[in-house]
Design brief:
Length: 262
């Protein structure tokens, strides 16, 4: 006699990543750390990549291995094309099932004085590395007929922002790239989507959260009336990587507490 299907068992099976190998870039802290934890909690083994990823003990390793999954650390400077290309070759050899392009950076200066160097650096890290990794890893996914790619876009994929022309340009392009890849790969068993985080309580927003006037202005516009936690983003990525999102292609999913709806 087979066991009856219960709501809990159905949901667990739908969200299960058991037996999957997932790559998370920018995994050493903040949103990337939370994404790695969410995917590992659903059963995925994790390759964590960042420019400063320790080879030994780290917070992300402790979290992943504490959930009973394997963790492989890799170090890559995403602003250096040769390092990104070398990372891509290593990932291709490992037959990755899930690729989360979360590694990113930001440079804040007014557009009138925003340097070429800052603009190029942000675009290299946020956009070019995402394309190279998606192209190389995605090719193997197409051959195997299965894969999940989730990019980290931004609220500024939809809005202009202030004093971040390079960041806004790169994140708008990440949204466009997500749709372009989805158009080509959806019928080949590869889902390509993106999350667009709102204001998240991480080190990057520490100064904003410590400024009472600025923090209140931000919270006053968020219908949910709170800053996002990194886990809010991690759980959204888990959904997009799971069987619950099989028919979702080219979506840019805002995880912003309703900011864009205001």
């Amino acid at each position: 006699m087979t066991n009856p299907i219960t709501p809990a068992s159905y949901a667990e099976r739908l969200l299960s990543l058991e037996g999957r190998l997932a790559v998370v870039t920018g995994a050493s802290q903040g949103i990337g750390l939370a994404i790695a934890e969410s995917l590992a909690s659903a059963g995925a083994d994790i390759i964590g990549v960042s420019h400063d990823m320790p080879e030994g003990d780290s917070e992300v390793r402790t979290l992943v291995e504490g959930l009973g999954r394997t963790f492989t650390p890799l170090r890559t400077d995403f602003s250096v094309r040769e390092q990104v290309t070398a990372l891509a070759a290593e990932l291709v050899a490992r037959e990755v099932d899930i690729l989360v392009n979360n590694g990113g950076t930001i440079r804040r200066t007014p557009a009138a004085v925003h340097s070429d160097e800052d603009f190029d650096y942000v675009v290299d890290v946020n956009l070019r590395a995402t394309f190279i990794l998606s192209r190389e890893v995605g090719r193997g996914m197409i051959e195997r007929g299965f894969g999940k790619i989730v990019n980290t876009a931004s609220m500024l994929s939809f809005q202009g922002g202030i004093n971040v022309p390079g960041y806004t340009s790169s994140k708008s392009a990440v949204a466009g790239l997500t749709k372009a890849l989805a158009n080509e790969w959806a019928d080949k068993g590869v889902n390509v989507n993106a999350v667009a985080p709102g204001y998240v309580a991480t080190a990057n927003t520490h100064d904003l959260r410590q400024d009472p006037e600025r923090s209140q202005a931000i919270l006053g516009r968020i219908p949910a009336a709170r800053w996002a936690e990194p886990s809010d983003i991690g759980d959204a990525v888990l959904f997009l990587c799971s069987n619950a999102a099989t028919y979702i292609h080219g979506a840019i999913l805002p995880v912003d507490g309703g900011w864009l709806a205001r």
